[in-house]
Amino acid sequence: MLFNLRHSLELHLHFFALTMPAAGLIVGRAAWPAGRLRAAGTVALGLVALAQVVALALMGRFVATHNTPGGFGLPLGRYLEVADQAVALAGEQKAAEVLVIGPGDSPVVDEVPAIFDVLLRGRVAFRFVDGRSAALFPPHQAVVVLAPRAGEAAGLYRPWPAVEAPGGYRLAMLDGGWPQGGFTPIAGPRLFQNGIELQGYRWEADGPGADGPGTRGRLWLLWQVLWQSPDDTHFFVHLLDPAGQKQGQQDSAGYPTVYRQKGDRAVSLFDIKLNTEVLLSPLRARVGMYTYPDVAGVPVVDGTGNIVADSVIIGLFTMEKGGP
Questions:
Q1: Cα 61 from Cα 56, distance rounded (Å)
Q2: CA distance 39 to 153
Q3: Alpha carbons within 13 A on the beta-carbon side of 229
Q4: How far is Cα 118 from Cα 16, in angstroms, rounded to an integer?
Q5: By the 8 A CB rule, do 165 and 82 touch?
Q6: DSSP state, 296?
Q7: Model-level pTM?
Q8: What is the C-alpha to C-alpha distance for residues 268 and 151, in angstroms, rounded to an integer?
Q9: What is the pLDDT of residues 119-175, one digit of tens each?
Q10: Less Cβ crowding at N or C end of the chain, within 10 Å?
Q11: 115 vs 80: CA distance, rounded Å
């Protein structure tokens, strides 16, 4: 017990359990072969047990009414209020579904999707979007649940009106539109054989700094699901210098195949680190798709379905901050 009382130990929730180690001491003392001591020990043990119940009840009440960052987090009652408000808004506006935008899109491993998967199940159609790398715009009305610190891509929902919700959440109402300003249209052919059509892009560079030229660039890619494919497919983006040499690459699902629906428009963020320092010479991006996990390329087709290329080339852009 003395060893575990070291100040260097990190604080854990079970340290608040009053029966550890006091109960062990009391039980040991009560077991001493003396009737009066045994009776006193039994009474003391009962008092400690009662104090333990009270302590746990008070702790449960506290985490049910207070936000505890790094602990339980936002109380479940607040999450339920957000879910109820989203369902009510969807009913009022006759929205087809609810989109939950937060840091992560898997209810298996990500906190926000895991919670709302339980709270929304059976009440309304819903999907999840990882706001750190994607934004989704379905072709129908939808309620958007924006979690605090949802991610940079969640900023694409700002043009749509939103209302405040408990716990720092916000609810926005989509009308079937999508962000069109600031994106450069992509000329055809731009349609992949799996029904994904590239429609626009926006390029951002970190720009030169005190240490020399910029070494990171971000490509925002606007694309649409014209028809659904059963294959799980991912994107790849290669940055090419004027000589056609690859200077950077990022692969991404863009938006998980399991969530895609016909008519969806999505904006995916590709944050690309360059392999070497690149001067302010023009770059291009080669955008392609492949099936996962077998990594078979998805070809680009024309309007009649004929294969015309294995990828789409977009750009010119530079590593100059704010460049096209």
A1: 8
A2: 66
A3: 19
A4: 29
A5: yes
A6: P
A7: 0.79
A8: 12
A9: 999 999 999 999 999 999 999 999 999 999 999 999 999 999 999 999 899 999 999
A10: N
A11: 9
